[in-house]
Amino acid sequence: MVDSARAARLAKRISSIVASAIGTEIKDPRLEHVTITDARVTNDLHYATVFYTVMGESIDAEPDYEAAAAGLAKATGILRSKVGAGTGVRFTPTLTFVLDTVPDAARQMEELVARARANDELVARQAATATPAGEADPYRHDDDTADEDGSQE
C-alpha cells in the first residue's frame, strides 16, 4: 500500500518536471502561454492529473484554450517519458491534462466582492441622509411612566 504523502511528493515532482519541459524543451508554439499550476497523483501512483492555465498573448487577448489542449495532447508522450526519467518510479504515471478553473473562479469571486462593496457604500450613503419613517425613537424607555392608555400608575 502506498501512502498519500508519497503520492503528494510525486505529484509535486511531476508538476515541476512538466513545467520545466514545457518551458525549455518542448518547442510547440501552442504551449508558449501555458502554465502548470498543480498536479495530483492517485494513491496507486498509476495516474497523474496535471492542471494548467493559459494566458493570452497580451492582457486584452483571449487565451486559446483549444490550441493549448491540442499542444498538450500532442506532447503527452514526450512529457511522460521525461516524468519517467526524472522520477525514477517503477511505473510512470499516465498523464492527463485538465484546464485549471481556480483562476477564473477567483476572478469571479473578486468581481462579486467588488460589487458587494459598491452596494454597501451605496446603502451607507443613503443611510447617512435618511430619516426615520415614524418617530425618531419608537422604543419605550424605563423613565416612561404612562401606560398605553395614557394613565399614570
From TrEMBL:
Compositionally biased region (Acidic residues): 144-153
Cell compartments where the protein resides: Cytoplasm
Main location: cytoplasm
InterPro entries hit by this protein: KH_dom-like_a/b, RbfA, RbfA_dom_sf, Ribosome-bd_factorA_CS
This protein's record includes keyword Cytoplasm: yes
Region feature (Disordered): 123-153
Free-text function comment from the UniProt entry: One of several proteins that assist in the late maturation steps of the functional core of the 30S ribosomal subunit. Associates with free 30S ribosomal subunits (but not with 30S subunits that are part of 70S ribosomes or polysomes). Required for efficient processing of 16S rRNA. May interact with the 5'-terminal helix region of 16S rRNA.
Subunit structure and binding partners: Monomer. Binds 30S ribosomal subunits, but not 50S ribosomal subunits or 70S ribosomes.
Protein name (database record): Ribosome-binding factor A
Organism phylogeny: Bacteria, Bacillati, Actinomycetota, Actinomycetes, Mycobacteriales
